[in-house]
């Protein structure tokens, strides 16, 4: 290669490198080139001695001005005076200017379009503070956004930032379609990978109020969620203050690893375990599903924590009577531990907090009432009923079924039977492994076509105490799995209507949209979907200590929510205030938090007859078929 070709290659290489630096660099370079050209041309114009007017030569300052305006404004050429030599010269200057100006306009236009395209891609840094950051995208996101909008109603402005591997405009359009008006909450979408450190930086986790990590809807979901947690908490540029992260883990084997990585900065929700417990508890207690939804959504009353110095030194029994418009659930002690329905003689100390169900965080206030007008003559004792073996039917099968059977074993009396009916042989191996660990249950299996009406008729469904309907999500795509569940559910409802048999039925839908197709007919016909998980994640993202409350409520050990006959607490048939019911429950070491009117159990507009946190001084007339909602150990 000769020197000239080598020089040209180097020059071309340097020019390519310069062009690759971006629009602003090119505009700056073009400006410098224009200035150099103006100076050179001004010198040439002075040296040539062209006359502007007859007998009048041009000076250097005037030469600079003439060259600059002819380069920047081609129209100036029409006003040129002087000889033809000057005109031809200025024409050449104008042509150079046209090239320079056209290039400049092209660069500016391209720069603006590039910037607009970047903004459309959602790759710009989010400059917000105290926002809720959602990492990932799934069907749960619409419920979470809706609940966060409700939670932000008392704020001047709320902000939700979403980072997902989807197009920014598509995300915004889908949110607009499925969520609608976001009120005083702004929703900002960014495109990026939640497991990439650089992409997470775009969403500004450093200034966030809380972070929600959604599952990835694939078999590697847990590992990707753990990687996202690592990317946030181990970032060299992370903030000093602890993060508040809420994440979903499917497999319990991954729980310890995720907790080790996130430590106290992450609240983990075992989704399969959570859904399993919900299905078992709601299948066994009519109306319990409505109570859980009331506690977990932001429409109505929610659970709040508050310090109350005026009650320091009081016992828990005294505290539950101290509130007129709030139902007290338990205490959070100064060390952060939570006790739901602790012993009645537990003393409330300085630094402790009261956990109550109330309309808003500013309504959890002692009433000051000292006379509760308790009617001693209306209190009743509990009649111990003889426990009998239960017959439980599980139709369908998925990975959660083994958790459901284990959970049922905690509740069912000794000698009870679970019959599993599935169109696949999957349950056989799992049941054989489960049998040695079960104390109260005997498990049977039958292979059959579960969407076939004749098969369901032969099962004699009305003879079972509880029925749980599961999706075949390991064998079919989501929509097909839900369709199979829906067909079976409709058959079972038809059988129940024909026999006029009351069924405790809980079914499962994977996609929340399909839940609407099989809308529930009563509080005893509950459909579990990702909505409950979405509600729980939203609540915990707003207050991490709520995780301790729900862990206690969903655990077979300790106190849980029970719905028991009203006759176990008061004599019915005549109006009584709720303080009297509260007193009767307290004598049984329970806390009454509501009641259920059985006559309204099929009316969705009245929450299927369920009332949580009633005003305690209001008079309530209950029948012997109505029930009381309590926190109890059994």
Automatic annotation (TrEMBL):
Indicate the principal place this protein occupies in or around the cell: membrane
Q: Which Pfam families match?
A: Castor_Poll_mid
Any transmembrane segments, and where? 26-50, 88-113
Residue ranges of coiled coil: none
Location in or out of the cell: Endomembrane system
Recorded topology in the membrane: Multi-pass membrane protein
Q: What superkingdom heads the lineage?
A: Bacteria
> Where is the CASTOR/POLLUX/SYM8 ion channel conserved domain positioned along the sequence?
273-367
Q: Which UniProt keywords apply?
A: Ion channel, Ion transport, Membrane, Transmembrane, Transmembrane helix, Transport
Query: What is the designated name of this protein?
Result: NAD-binding protein
- Species of origin reads Reichenbachiella carrageenanivorans
Q: What is the lineage of its organism?
A: Bacteria, Pseudomonadati, Bacteroidota, Cytophagia, Cytophagales
